[in-house]
Every structure is written in structure tokens, then in C-alpha cells.
Amino acid sequence: MRELTGVWEGIAVVLTDAWVVFVGYTALTIAFHPLLQGGISLAFGLALVFLLYPLDKKRVPFEAVSLRDKILYGPRNSPSWLDIALLVLAVTPCIYIMIAWEQVARAVGRFETHQLILGAVLGVLLLEGTRRIWGKQFPLWSCSFSVMPWSVSLSLASLGTLAINLRKSFISFT
Predict the structure, then answer these.
(1) Taking CA 153 as the corner, what is the angle to CA 148 and CA 157, rounded to the nearest 5 degrees?
(2) Residue 10: in which H helix or E strand, if any?
């Protein structure tokens, strides 16, 4: 975990405090729609993950000397350029959910192209965030459990038995 200083430490503290206030307020007063509340919490969580956890814990130098180090790893006390770009990319689908949550909630199972793209970006960055915190095992387990319905469906279809509809299993799984 990075030891942020200066402005970056202030940003992390403000994000953490705002998240705590949001969760406490919604717990004590009124809960939002789960899609909206989840999108807001996911935005806070992913922003903090990409601020606090480097791409590779072993390769973070005390001072990023080369341009490659600044882009990929950054110094110990601030995020790298890649982390800031990933933070913006991860928060963008969450902001879309905050803005268009009613449209998304009403159109269950009917996705537009930009929603699928934002969902794929969010899925990949969520796996990257979990890899940074818990290591490679958790994203690998998640991917293997995501592939399981399709592998079972294909194996049952090859045996000539009733196969699970891939489209329905994908929609119910997401």
C-alpha cells in the first residue's frame, strides 16, 4: 500500500470521509435504489484502490526516476500516471450509473452498446482492483466461476442432453 503524502493524502482522506458519511447517512435515514447506492460505493472503493495500491508492490521505487517508472509505478508517496488513468476509467461507468440508473433499472436485459462497453471496462478494472489488493488468486477464481455456466452448458450439449441457454445464463449471471 502506498504511503501517500501532500495533496494525494488529502484526496484519499476526503474520499474516505465522504464514503463513510454517505454510508452512514443512507444507513440512518433513507436508502437509495441498490443500483444507485452500489454505483456510488463502487466509485469510492475503486478510486481508493487505484490511489492506494500500486500496479506492482515490489517494483515501486522510492523515487520514480525514468519516464517508464513514472508512468507504470510512480513513487511511493503518490500514484502513477497509469493509476490515475485507471481511476478515471473505473469511476466513469459508476458515474454513468449514477446519472442513468433509472433508465438502466427499467430496461432489464436490454443493453445498449455503450452500456456493454462501460460494463466490460468496469468488470476488467474491478478484477484489476481485486488483484492489487488480494493478489492473482481472487480474479482467477472469479473468472473461473464466471466461465463455469458456459462450460457446463457446452459439456451437456456435447452429451446430447438439454443444454442451458447461453444467453439466459449470461444475463442472469451479470
Answers:
(1) 150
(2) helix 6-28
Number of Cβ atoms within 10 Å of the Cβ of 83: 23
Q: What are phi and psi of 7, to 5 degrees?
A: -60, -40
Q: Cα 25 vs. chain centroid, distance in angstroms?
A: 23
CA 111 from centre of chain:
19
Three-class secondary structure of residue 101 per DSSP: helix
Each residue of 94-124: pLDDT tens digit?
A: 999 999 988 888 888 888 899 999 999 999 9
The predicted structure's pLDDT at residue 168: 55
- Domain ranges for the chain: 6-135, 136-174
17 near 42, Cβ under 8 Å? no
Sequence-distant (6+) residues with CB within 8 A of 61 are: 69, 73, 75, 76
Distance CA 131, CA 53 (A): 10
> For cell 456510488, what's the residue?
40
Non-local (6+) Cβ contacts of 63 within 8 A are: 75
| Residues of the chain predicted below pLDDT 50 | 160-163
Using a cut of 0.90, tell me whether the model's pTM lies above it: no
